[in-house]
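Give me the fold.
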Amino acid sequence: MLSAAVFCSVAITLSLLTQLPQVLRSLRTRATEGLSTGTVALSLLCCASWCAYGLAVLDVAQVANNVVNLALLAVLAHALVLAGALRPWQGVALVAGAVGIATAVVGLTSPFAAATLAAAIGFGAKVPQVRVALSGAPLGGLAPLSVVLGFVSPTLWAGYGLAVGDPVVLLASVFSGALSAVILWRRLPPRRTLGSLSAGRLGPRVARVAGAVDTRLPQPARPATT
């Protein structure tokens, strides 16, 4: 179906682009406040497992998608090392361990086992990041664009799962989207974000739209003065 193909194409594109702003921000600023090393580690293992599965069953699309993400996540692990959040050996261990575990699963068991491992990890990969977001820790190190794309991408995958009648993809995407929504809400609170945009953060056109939306939202109650 055309709708399923559109959902899939856009979702794959956004999946490839989601990590890029975070990698560029972390390398440029060396700021990683709020970035969960647990989520990075689980995401590395998830991508490595999907790569191993794709290579084993000769799924070119699966390999292409996850090799790019695996490379970006490896660079992100390096950025965590540069920022002092990880020691050099820990960064190497994260990448090498993920690739080694995924390769061992395929070699010692089956490609299906690697896919099962990847799917299971995918369900929980964002949980450590959500815990950091809800803890009240500063989230200034999270790239806003990556946070937004991290929410939009699973939403599109959910649309794809619904279009093709795949309950596994639909359920996994809805769960991932719900976790991403929590991260988005904590990193870009609606009221503060609208205020920043209406002040001209992204230019006058966006400022006009954001200002119009902001004026239509219920205004916070002001404390009574005596």
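Residues 32 and 141 are 4 Å apart (CA to CA).
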